[in-house]
Protein backbone atom coordinates (compact mmCIF):
# COMPACT_ATOMS: atom_id res chain seq x y z
CA UNK A 1 0.00 0.00 0.00
CA UNK A 2 1.40 3.46 -0.91
CA UNK A 3 2.54 5.51 2.08
CA UNK A 4 0.19 8.40 1.30
CA UNK A 5 -2.81 6.08 1.12
CA UNK A 6 -1.82 4.40 4.38
CA UNK A 7 -1.51 7.76 6.15
CA UNK A 8 -4.89 8.87 4.81
CA UNK A 9 -6.45 5.62 6.01
CA UNK A 10 -4.95 6.05 9.49
CA UNK A 11 -6.22 9.63 9.71
CA UNK A 12 -9.71 8.57 8.65
CA UNK A 13 -9.68 5.72 11.19
CA UNK A 14 -8.53 8.08 13.96
CA UNK A 15 -11.32 10.54 13.17
CA UNK A 16 -13.87 7.72 13.18
CA UNK A 17 -12.64 6.36 16.53
CA UNK A 18 -12.42 9.77 18.23
CA UNK A 19 -16.08 9.85 19.40
CA UNK A 20 -15.66 6.38 20.93
CA UNK A 21 -12.54 7.54 22.77
CA UNK A 22 -14.46 10.53 24.12
CA UNK A 23 -17.33 8.30 25.26
CA UNK A 24 -14.94 5.90 26.97
CA UNK A 25 -13.14 8.80 28.69
CA UNK A 26 -16.35 10.44 29.92
CA UNK A 27 -17.86 7.13 31.01
CA UNK A 28 -14.71 6.34 33.00
CA UNK A 29 -15.21 9.57 34.94
CA UNK A 30 -18.72 8.62 36.04
CA UNK A 31 -19.67 6.91 39.25
CA UNK A 32 -20.84 3.32 38.74
CA UNK A 33 -23.97 3.97 40.79
CA UNK A 34 -24.86 6.90 38.54
CA UNK A 35 -24.47 4.76 35.42
CA UNK A 36 -26.68 2.04 36.90
CA UNK A 37 -29.26 4.66 37.87
CA UNK A 38 -29.49 5.98 34.30
CA UNK A 39 -29.62 2.52 32.74
CA UNK A 40 -32.26 1.26 35.16
CA UNK A 41 -34.70 4.06 34.47
CA UNK A 42 -37.94 2.94 32.90
CA UNK A 43 -37.60 5.50 30.12
CA UNK A 44 -34.10 4.31 29.22
CA UNK A 45 -35.26 0.70 29.07
CA UNK A 46 -38.25 1.69 26.94
CA UNK A 47 -36.02 3.58 24.50
CA UNK A 48 -33.70 0.59 24.30
CA UNK A 49 -36.60 -1.76 23.66
CA UNK A 50 -38.03 0.50 20.97
CA UNK A 51 -34.67 0.75 19.22
CA UNK A 52 -34.13 -3.02 19.22
CA UNK A 53 -37.71 -3.74 18.12
CA UNK A 54 -37.56 -1.21 15.29
CA UNK A 55 -34.18 -2.51 14.10
CA UNK A 56 -35.44 -6.11 14.13
CA UNK A 57 -38.65 -5.34 12.22
CA UNK A 58 -36.99 -3.10 9.64
CA UNK A 59 -34.15 -5.58 9.09
CA UNK A 60 -36.63 -8.40 8.53
CA UNK A 61 -38.68 -6.27 6.14
CA UNK A 62 -35.58 -5.07 4.30
CA UNK A 63 -34.39 -8.67 3.97
CA UNK A 64 -37.67 -9.81 2.42
CA UNK A 65 -37.98 -6.83 0.07
CA UNK A 66 -34.29 -6.77 -0.82
CA UNK A 67 -33.98 -10.47 -1.59
CA UNK A 68 -37.33 -10.54 -3.38
CA UNK A 69 -36.58 -7.57 -5.61
CA UNK A 70 -33.08 -8.87 -6.35
CA UNK A 71 -34.46 -12.24 -7.40
CA UNK A 72 -37.06 -10.61 -9.66
CA UNK A 73 -34.43 -8.42 -11.33
CA UNK A 74 -31.77 -11.12 -11.71
CA UNK A 75 -33.77 -14.30 -12.26
CA UNK A 76 -36.97 -13.35 -14.11
CA UNK A 77 -37.91 -11.87 -17.47
CA UNK A 78 -39.97 -9.05 -16.00
CA UNK A 79 -40.58 -6.29 -18.58
CA UNK A 80 -38.23 -3.29 -18.36
CA UNK A 81 -35.92 -5.25 -16.10
CA UNK A 82 -33.06 -2.75 -16.41
CA UNK A 83 -35.36 0.08 -15.39
CA UNK A 84 -36.59 -1.87 -12.36
CA UNK A 85 -32.98 -2.60 -11.42
CA UNK A 86 -32.32 1.14 -11.18
CA UNK A 87 -35.63 2.03 -9.52
CA UNK A 88 -35.11 -0.61 -6.82
CA UNK A 89 -31.96 1.19 -5.65
CA UNK A 90 -33.40 4.72 -5.74
CA UNK A 91 -34.57 4.87 -2.09
CA UNK A 92 -30.91 5.17 -1.10
CA UNK A 93 -30.85 8.58 -2.80
CA UNK A 94 -33.58 9.91 -0.49
CA UNK A 95 -32.55 10.80 3.09
CA UNK A 96 -34.76 9.05 5.61
CA UNK A 97 -35.83 12.30 7.26
CA UNK A 98 -36.99 13.62 3.86
CA UNK A 99 -38.92 10.40 3.26
CA UNK A 100 -40.44 10.62 6.75
CA UNK A 101 -41.51 14.23 6.18
CA UNK A 102 -43.05 13.34 2.81
CA UNK A 103 -44.97 10.41 4.27
CA UNK A 104 -46.29 12.30 7.29
CA UNK A 105 -47.24 15.28 5.10
CA UNK A 106 -49.20 13.02 2.75
CA UNK A 107 -50.62 10.71 5.45
CA UNK A 108 -50.64 12.45 8.86
CA UNK A 109 -51.62 9.23 10.62
CA UNK A 110 -48.35 7.59 9.57
CA UNK A 111 -46.49 8.07 12.83
CA UNK A 112 -45.24 6.08 15.77
CA UNK A 113 -43.81 2.60 15.44
CA UNK A 114 -45.78 1.64 12.33
CA UNK A 115 -44.78 4.75 10.43
CA UNK A 116 -41.13 4.47 11.44
CA UNK A 117 -41.01 0.80 10.46
CA UNK A 118 -42.64 1.52 7.09
CA UNK A 119 -40.44 4.47 6.16
CA UNK A 120 -37.18 2.89 7.29
CA UNK A 121 -37.96 -0.43 5.60
CA UNK A 122 -38.62 1.29 2.29
CA UNK A 123 -35.46 3.38 2.66
CA UNK A 124 -33.18 0.58 3.89
CA UNK A 125 -34.07 -2.44 1.76
CA UNK A 126 -31.61 -1.37 -1.01
CA UNK A 127 -28.81 -2.17 1.45
CA UNK A 128 -29.87 -5.80 1.02
CA UNK A 129 -30.96 -5.57 -2.60
CA UNK A 130 -27.68 -4.26 -4.04
CA UNK A 131 -25.28 -6.94 -2.70
CA UNK A 132 -27.79 -9.73 -3.32
CA UNK A 133 -28.53 -8.74 -6.92
CA UNK A 134 -24.78 -8.44 -7.57
CA UNK A 135 -24.27 -11.94 -6.15
CA UNK A 136 -27.10 -13.43 -8.21
CA UNK A 137 -25.71 -11.89 -11.39
CA UNK A 138 -22.33 -13.43 -10.68
CA UNK A 139 -23.63 -16.92 -9.89
CA UNK A 140 -24.24 -19.43 -12.66
CA UNK A 141 -28.01 -20.15 -12.79
CA UNK A 142 -27.18 -23.67 -13.97
CA UNK A 143 -27.22 -24.82 -10.34
CA UNK A 144 -30.83 -23.70 -9.98
CA UNK A 145 -31.75 -25.18 -13.36
CA UNK A 146 -30.22 -28.52 -12.32
CA UNK A 147 -32.27 -28.47 -9.14
CA UNK A 148 -35.47 -27.77 -11.07
CA UNK A 149 -34.69 -30.52 -13.60
CA UNK A 150 -34.25 -32.94 -10.68
CA UNK A 151 -37.87 -32.35 -9.74
CA UNK A 152 -37.37 -29.80 -6.97
CA UNK A 153 -39.99 -27.05 -6.99
CA UNK A 154 -39.23 -23.32 -7.18
CA UNK A 155 -39.56 -22.83 -3.42
CA UNK A 156 -37.34 -25.81 -2.67
CA UNK A 157 -34.78 -24.65 -5.21
CA UNK A 158 -34.70 -21.20 -3.67
CA UNK A 159 -34.26 -22.55 -0.14
CA UNK A 160 -31.73 -25.26 -0.98
CA UNK A 161 -29.69 -23.61 -3.73
CA UNK A 162 -30.29 -19.88 -4.16
CA UNK A 163 -30.48 -18.99 -0.48
CA UNK A 164 -27.15 -20.67 0.26
CA UNK A 165 -25.49 -18.70 -2.52
CA UNK A 166 -26.82 -15.30 -1.45
CA UNK A 167 -26.64 -15.80 2.32
CA UNK A 168 -23.36 -13.89 2.90
CA UNK A 169 -24.53 -10.96 0.78
CA UNK A 170 -27.94 -10.90 2.43
CA UNK A 171 -26.35 -11.03 5.89
CA UNK A 172 -24.01 -8.15 5.08
CA UNK A 173 -26.86 -6.05 3.70
CA UNK A 174 -29.04 -6.84 6.71
CA UNK A 175 -26.22 -5.72 9.00
CA UNK A 176 -26.02 -2.37 7.20
CA UNK A 177 -29.79 -1.93 7.46
CA UNK A 178 -29.82 -2.77 11.18
CA UNK A 179 -26.94 -0.41 11.95
CA UNK A 180 -28.60 2.38 10.01
CA UNK A 181 -31.86 1.97 11.92
CA UNK A 182 -30.09 1.92 15.28
CA UNK A 183 -28.24 5.14 14.46
CA UNK A 184 -31.13 6.95 12.75
CA UNK A 185 -32.41 10.12 14.37
CA UNK A 186 -34.11 12.28 11.74
CA UNK A 187 -36.94 10.02 10.63
CA UNK A 188 -37.85 8.66 14.08
CA UNK A 189 -37.97 12.16 15.55
CA UNK A 190 -40.25 13.38 12.73
CA UNK A 191 -42.46 10.31 13.09
CA UNK A 192 -42.59 10.74 16.88
CA UNK A 193 -41.10 7.39 17.80
CA UNK A 194 -38.71 7.74 20.73
CA UNK A 195 -35.65 5.56 20.31
CA UNK A 196 -32.25 5.80 21.99
CA UNK A 197 -31.04 8.44 19.53
CA UNK A 198 -34.03 10.65 20.31
CA UNK A 199 -33.48 10.08 24.02
CA UNK A 200 -29.82 11.10 23.72
CA UNK A 201 -30.76 14.32 21.93
CA UNK A 202 -33.52 15.25 24.36
CA UNK A 203 -31.44 14.52 27.45
CA UNK A 204 -28.69 16.77 26.10
CA UNK A 205 -30.96 19.65 25.09
CA UNK A 206 -33.02 19.50 28.30
CA UNK A 207 -29.93 19.82 30.49
CA UNK A 208 -26.83 20.78 28.47
CA UNK A 209 -24.77 21.30 31.64
CA UNK A 210 -25.14 17.69 32.79
CA UNK A 211 -23.95 15.27 30.14
CA UNK A 212 -24.19 12.16 32.28
CA UNK A 213 -27.42 10.87 30.76
CA UNK A 214 -26.48 11.42 27.08
CA UNK A 215 -23.04 9.90 27.67
CA UNK A 216 -24.49 6.78 29.31
CA UNK A 217 -27.19 6.38 26.66
CA UNK A 218 -24.61 6.88 23.91
CA UNK A 219 -22.48 4.16 25.45
CA UNK A 220 -25.53 1.90 25.52
CA UNK A 221 -26.13 2.64 21.84
CA UNK A 222 -22.53 1.70 21.02
CA UNK A 223 -22.93 -1.52 23.01
CA UNK A 224 -26.08 -2.46 21.07
CA UNK A 225 -24.25 -1.76 17.82
CA UNK A 226 -21.33 -3.96 18.85
CA UNK A 227 -23.71 -6.80 19.76
CA UNK A 228 -25.40 -6.56 16.35
CA UNK A 229 -22.03 -6.66 14.55
CA UNK A 230 -20.84 -9.64 16.60
CA UNK A 231 -24.12 -11.49 16.04
CA UNK A 232 -23.82 -11.00 12.27
CA UNK A 233 -20.25 -12.28 12.36
CA UNK A 234 -21.28 -15.40 14.29
CA UNK A 235 -24.13 -16.04 11.85
CA UNK A 236 -21.55 -16.39 9.09
CA UNK A 237 -19.74 -19.02 11.10
Structural overview:
There is one protein chain. With 237 residues, the protein is mainly alpha-helical. It has a single domain, classed as MetI-like fold (Orthogonal Bundle), CATH 1.10.3720.10. The protein contains twelve helices and no strands. Helix 1 packs across helix 12, helix 3 runs parallel beside helix 7 and helix 5 (96-106) crosses helix 6 (112-124). The longest helix has 34 residues, at 42-75. It is globular and about 70 Å long. The two termini are 30 Å apart. The model has no long low-confidence stretch (mean pLDDT 88).
Would you kindly provide a brief summary of this structure?
80% of the residues lie in helices and 0% in strands. With 237 residues, it is mostly helical.
